[in-house]
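Reviewers asked in the last cycle whether our approach scales beyond single polypeptides. To address this, we selected a multi-component target totalling 530 residues and predicted its structure end to end. The input consisted of the following lines:
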Amino acid sequence: MSLSIKQLLENKGIKPREEHLEILEGRRKGMAELRGDLSGVAIDDADIGMRNIPGGDHVE
Amino acid sequence: MSKELAAKSVEELAPLIKDKSLSPVELTEAVLQQADDTQGEINAYMEIYRDEALDMAKQAETDINNGNYKGMYHGIPMGIKDNVYFKDKVSTMSSKIHKDFVSDHDATVITKLREAGVVFTGKVSMHEYAWGITNNNPHYGAVKNPWNHEKIPGGSSGGSGAAVAVGSSVASLGTDTAGSIRIPSSACGIVGLKQTHGLVSKYGVYPLAWSLDHVGPMTKTVKDAAGLLQIIAGYDKQDPTSVKAPIDDYVGSITGNVKDLVIGVNEEYFFNEVDSGIEKLVRNAIDELVKQGAKVKEVKIPTLKYAEWAELVTSLSEASAIHHSDMLTRPDDFGNDIRMLFELGELPSAVEYLQAQQVRRQLKQDFQKAFNEVDILMMPTLPVLPNDIGDDWADLNGKKVDLIDNIIRFTGPGNLTGLPGLSVPCGFSNGLPVGLQIMGPAFSEATILNAGYAFEQTNPMGNNKPELLK
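The resulting structure, written as structure tokens, was:
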């Protein structure tokens, strides 16, 4: 079962405007098309640069 | 005389101020007069600091008369984007929710500009919370494009772009998360620089999306941008993304010599789906640099095909996280356009956000491979011309296309990768300015500024000025 955009947002406590729902659905589909299948991107094994800096930022 | 002064660039004004043939007070009065004369039509300012600006100008004059000239920006009047904090002053972010917000500290960039002797004329308008590109603000009114008042000035730093173009600020600072310095710079016919991420502190600047945000110069000329970057660049431990990097002599590195410079062109992404008038001007600009001794080489950047998705997921998610609490408690206080973007930003999953960061890393590697072969990349700043105020669609060679999706296509990759991008005016199409974008490797600001300067010397804008500056 897939949740509607309205349900997804309401589950987070956000009340979307009714007139936004159709536009949001269109934009969500558009983003899925832009994403495609990410072919050529090493999604399963790529490391990413999220840094975990012990001591906090800019340890001198 | 007042308009003539307001029209001048920093590089023209600074020598006059330095040799005391122009008083900072006279210049500030001229710029404030231009702000008054244009505000009703252009709406660039949120607030004008008239008395304080004149006090600061008098102080600058006294300092200079006492032999304490501080450099190129000493005594130069500037309006600053309204998401950059001034101590004990209101910074609204052009929003209703923050309309009374007063910061207890200056942004680091403001501290640096104070030390350089800049005269602050006030705060300029922006798209609400910087989350848009039209500057059609529901709370404070639309900012208009000085070249055609029915058109958007671009955004989100549209007040900065319009103010500099119309001479109500000699130069300005903008912020850029998906193109918000370069988009209004292109649309308003001025120079905009989004420098390498981490080179300029973001401390004291209200965020839109932490990992994509930048603060940078918006100016009349390339040398003005170089001079402003010289002042604001530098490590700041108060900004967690600040980087300890060497600060070049940006102004001194500008020679205009581009002999043997290798220009990269990526046809597949940056020249695909471009307004034909814009494409012609940008290709002409590349040809101009080739005439001056540069070479051209085509490069491939395969991951660009996912850049727009990664930019959208990252910016939407980060922006919605920042405004989540207000979306729960007072959503009606947001403008309708950004409220919808905040709703949209609640939808991507954590997995999608992290996959976008994986795309981002590979995009950085692809750009780096390209920069192993070429010195800079050149492309249009925008694929479309500024649209009518209130219209959500842009015209792309006779086809109606979504404005926001298209207008960030060529600027967003600079934010995702953190690489520097400079927009330089390259002519007019349908009476509207067009920007050429020059990108380079990390911390190559001196190189892209020099290439921009070399092209600027061909005078692509002629002697044209907005009507309100004549």
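The first helix of chain B runs from residue 2 to 7. We regard this as preliminary and will revisit it once experimental data from Aim 1 are available.
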